[in-house]
């Protein structure tokens, strides 16, 4: 009985930590703790629902709930010094599609696939589309390339990249490709802006680039 009580108390006190990283950050669009009055809802106090849903998700991974952008093409970064290609991911299933469903500025932050309790968030009008520096737009030619293959062949051809097996654990490749989430963790803003690690002395950059 004592052990069961301890477990119950542990669950009660530790459960909030699951969303503590998002609560109160720019990715918190809820009425309860959303910090930005321009984008937060006033009629939905759930935090996770603006990105995730336990049922009827689209796409299924990672139980995504925000409507994807209908943009037909992105202008990707390219350079004569690149030994790989950043492939256009518009309309595809790349992880970056999830980020761009808000950050290309074409879909309001509250446009969801599955509204909570059937109540549509009131931050779902055109006026609730992201603006300012967080709006990357559809021209990504001045942004770090994403949706590019990062493998041993690229490391060998480039000569100034860290070997795949030597990348720090905080930097993820998705199906062998660099995506927005390789450098950004949407659930943790300890390293602004949602970086997977501190970039002091360009530490994040140097995790991949040998300079």
Structure explained in plain terms:
- The chain is mostly helical and 211 residues long.
- It is built from six helices and two strands; from the N terminus they run αααβαβαα.
- The longest helix has 13 residues, at 2-14.
- Residues 1-20 have low confidence and may be disordered.
List the helices and strands and how they pair.
Layout: H1 2-14, H2 17-20, H3 95-103, E1 148-149, H4 152-158, E2 177-178, H5 180-183, H6 203-206
Antiparallel strand pairs: 1-2
Q: What is the string of SSEs from the N terminus onward?
A: HHHEHEHH
Strand content: under 5%
**So how many helices?**
6
Strand order of the largest sheet: 1-2
Unreliable sequence segments? 1-20
Task: Specify the structural class.
Answer: mainly alpha
**Overall pLDDT confidence:** 91
Span of the ends, CA to CA: 59 Å
Taking Cα atoms only, what radius of gyration do you get, to the nearest Å? 19 Å
Number of strands: 2
Helix coverage percent: 10-25%
